[in-house]
Amino acid sequence: SRSDITYFGAGPALLPTAVLEEAAAALLNYNATGLGIAEHSHRSEIATTIINEAKADLVSYLDIPDDYEICFMQGGGSAQFSAMAYNFVGNWVTRKYKEVQGSESDESTVLKLKSAVENLKIDYIITGGWSQKAAAEAERLFGSEHVNIVADSRKANDGKFGTIPSEDTWNLSHDAAMVYYCDNETVHGVEFPGFPKCLEPGPDRPIVVADMSSNILSRRIPISNFSAIFFGAQKNLGSTGITVVIIQKQFLPQPSAALMRKLALPIPPRIFEFETIIKNNSLYNTLSVLDVFIAGRVLKQLLLQHPDKVQGQQILSQKKAQLIYKTLEAYPTIYQIIPDKAARSRMNICFRIKGGSAVEELFLKDAATVGLTGLKGHRELKGIRASNYNSISLEGAEKLANFISTFASQNG
Ligand code: PMP
């Protein structure tokens, strides 16, 4: 049964049973309305209340300042690879247009803007498969001449991911439309230990965008250092189907489609335009209110569990990750942790077992017999990956650590 299993899958991830029970009841009959939550109109007061409450709880849990907007979108984290590039380039053009102080119907204004566009850069820090995909999407949409790879961790690491390049090697552009990075690389098990020093707000404040799909809600974030943050719900927040964008209001304005065409720059489909989605409180089109409901219940539970909000969860996440890493480190002749110690993810713990895939198969099989599942590594990287998201309890992490010890003793 469900209570016998601790599921360490990388996403979709385990959801709290109490939340699923509530969602199951709501799916049949929401608040005694005789209609389920997935049947009620997204234009109903019920939907708006669910959306607004989830937003307010997210603001409270993460301490999001007033000058930020939150919206729920669809298309997963992958849609945001395109949406972030489109919107931040659009906003960059809006700013350049303001600086030029002309009219877009005026030839000389357009010429000035065209020459500015020659220097347009979108900066990417590549530390794993997900930031790599985001950068590749920007190259596809805007051309590689507009994409600057600030750093690529494979360069000084034998072509492999697993480190975060030292900031003194980073090659940041001047006036980039955004500097993009992935705070936690789910596949490669690499997490930024904290906010990069060289991106901290200063006189030429960099515009920083981060993918936090796999570590959101697990540690404190200095929100005001970011211009935007996004994350799919399906790891730490809720069920698959919604993606959350937190964006500073000043970066919303977009230029006209006509101006973008004159500058030969692509314009986003409306559905990817943050300004439009936010103006409509995430209801520009039919949103999956069920998924927002589930996310809202997870947030309520986290707020109840941790009176000190995300700080409380940060301590717990750290404790669980340390327990698992320490146990792996205790058997260096058996286990090999893949990423560099300084860049190890608290969320996705990636390791290999000496003896290769046959021993790893045995590890997975034995783990499953004691109810520890979802540990199989990524299909390309192989090995073992234990995803230690918020829904893994301390007891669940202890159970895994004990199993890691026992397996090592029996197979060493
Ligand atoms: N970013 C990260 C860090 C991810 O882990 C994932 C998915 N696992 C994505 C983006 C892509 O998300 P989706 O599958 O929802 O498009």
TrEMBL record:
Its cofactor is pyridoxal 5'-phosphate. It comes from the Eukaryota. Residues 7-94, 160-378 form the Aminotransferase class V domain. One of its GO terms (cellular component) is cytoplasm. The keyword Nucleotide-binding does not apply. Keywords: Amino-acid biosynthesis, Aminotransferase, Pyridoxal phosphate, Serine biosynthesis, Transferase. GO terms for molecular function: O-phospho-L-serine:2-oxoglutarate aminotransferase activity; pyridoxal phosphate binding. Pathway: Amino-acid biosynthesis; L-serine biosynthesis; L-serine from 3-phospho-D-glycerate: step 2/3. Its EC number is 2.6.1.52. GO terms for biological process: L-serine biosynthetic process. It catalyses: O-phospho-L-serine + 2-oxoglutarate = 3-phosphooxypyruvate + L-glutamate; 4-(phosphooxy)-L-threonine + 2-oxoglutarate = (R)-3-hydroxy-2-oxo-4-phosphooxybutanoate + L-glutamate. Belongs to the class-V pyridoxal-phosphate-dependent aminotransferase family. SerC subfamily. This is phosphoserine transaminase. It comes from Xylaria flabelliformis.
